[in-house]
TrEMBL record:
Pfam family, one: UPF0014
Predominant place of localization: membrane
Subcellular location: Membrane
A single GO cellular-component term on record: plasma membrane
Membrane topology: Multi-pass membrane protein
Segments traversing the membrane: 6-26, 38-57, 63-81, 93-114, 126-149, 189-211, 223-246
Family, as annotated: Belongs to the UPF0014 family.
Entry protein name: Iron export ABC transporter permease subunit FetB
Keywords from the named record: Membrane, Transmembrane, Transmembrane helix
Gene that specifies this protein: fetB
Lineage: superkingdom: Bacteria
InterPro entries: UPF0014_fam
Organism encoding this protein: Ramlibacter ginsenosidimutans
The UniProt record lists the keyword Transmembrane helix: yes
Keyword Repeat: no
C-alpha cells in the first residue's frame, strides 16, 4: 500500500495545532506563541530536510553524508544548550551539552550499523535515518538530565557545600544529584518501552505498517530501534551527569555556582 499525502491533507492537520494554540490562549497557559513557532519550524525544517535527503540519495556521496551527520550533531548540542533554564557560562558550555549527545549517538549508531550490516555503511538511506532517531532521543534525555541537575544544584547548594567542607570529593557530594537527574532523563524512554504495543503503536512501526510492511516484521524493527534508543539514552544521561558535575566544581572540589547563568 502506498499513499501520498496531498497538500490539503497536511493543511487539515494544521487545524489541530491552531486549535491547540487557541486552547492555550483561552486557558492562559502562555504557550500559544511557542507552539505556533514550533509548528512553523516543523514544516520548514522537515520540508527542507526532505529536499536535502532527495539530493543526498541521488548523489550517494559518503563525504556529504558525514557532513550532514556532523551538522545534525552540532544542531542537537546547540538545541540542548539553548533550552536550559540555567546554563553554564564560558566557552565550554555548548561543548558540555554537545559532547555527551554526540558520543552516545555515534556509539549507538555505529553499533546499529554493525548489526544491520548494510552494503555501504555511509549510505544516506541508512546512516542518516538511524542517526536521526538515535540523536533525537539522546538529545531529549540529555536535556532533561542537565536541566534537572542544574535545578537541584541550586536548591541543594547548602547540603552539597556541607559535604565538600567535610572532605567529600565533588563526585561523592554530587552523586545523589547525578542519580536523580539521570533517573529523570531515563523516564521518557522507559515509559515509551513500557507502553509500546499495549497503550500505543510506536511511530516507526505505524509508519512501516502504513507503508505495507507485514506487522510482525514491523514489530521486530521497532523492538530493535527501542533497544537502540534505550542504550543511547543511558549513555547520554551518564555522560551528561558527569560532565555537569565536573563543570559545576573545580579541581579543588569547590562548588562553582558562579558558572551558572539563569535564562
Amino acid at each position: 500500500m502506498e499513499h501520498v499525502l496531498s497538500t490539503w491533507q497536511l493543511a487539515a492537520t494544521a487545524v489541530l495545532v491552531v486549535a491547540s494554540a487557541g486552547l492555550s490562549l483561552w486557558m492562559q497557559m502562555g504557550i500559544a506563541r511557542p507552539l505556533l513557532v514550533a509548528a512553523a519550524r516543523t514544516v520548514v525544517q522537515l520540508l527542507l530536510v526532505g529536499l536535502v535527503l532527495k539530493q543526498l540519495f541521488a548523489n550517494q556521496s559518503p563525504w556529504l553524508t558525514v557532513l550532514v551527520m556532523v551538522a545534525m550533531l552540532g544542531a542537537a548540542g546547540y538545541e540542548t544548550f539553548s533550552r536550559q533554564d540555567r546554563r553554564f557560562a564560558g566557552g565550554t558550555a555548548v561543548a558540555l551539552a554537545s559532547l555527551p549527545i554526540a558520543i552516545a549517538s555515534v556509539i549507538v549508531t555505529g553499533f546499529a550499523l554493525a548489526t544491520l550490516r548494510p552494503e555501504h555503511w555511509l549510505s544516506p538511506q541508512v546512516a542518516i535515518p538511524l542517526l536521526g532517531i538515535v540523536l533525537g532521543n539522546a538529545m531529549s534525555s540529555a536535556s532533561v538530565t542537565l536541566n534537572t541537575f542544574t535545578g537541584m544544584l541550586v536548591r541543594e547548594r547548602a547540603a552539597v557545600e556541607a559535604q565538600l567542607a567535610l572532605g567529600a570529593t565533588r563526585y561523592t557530594a554530587l552523586a545523589p544529584l547525578q542519580r536523580s537527574a539521570a533517573r529523570n532523563g531515563m523516564i521518557p524512554i522507559i515509559n515509551q518501552m513500557a507502553a509500546a504495543g499495549v497503550i500505543t503503536l510506536p511511530g516507526m512501526m505505524t509508519g512501516q505498517i502504513l507503508a505495507g510492511m507485514p506487522p510482525f516484521e514491523a514489530a521486530k524493527y521497532q523492538v530493535f530501534v527501542l533497544f537502540l534508543l534505550a542504550g543511547a539514552a543511558a549513555l547520554a544521561v551518564a555522560a551528561t551527569s558527569y560532565a555537569a558535575a565536573w563543570r559545576a566544581t573545580d579541581a579543588r572540589h569547590r562548588l562553582r555556582l558562579d558558572r551558572l547563568r539563569s535564562t
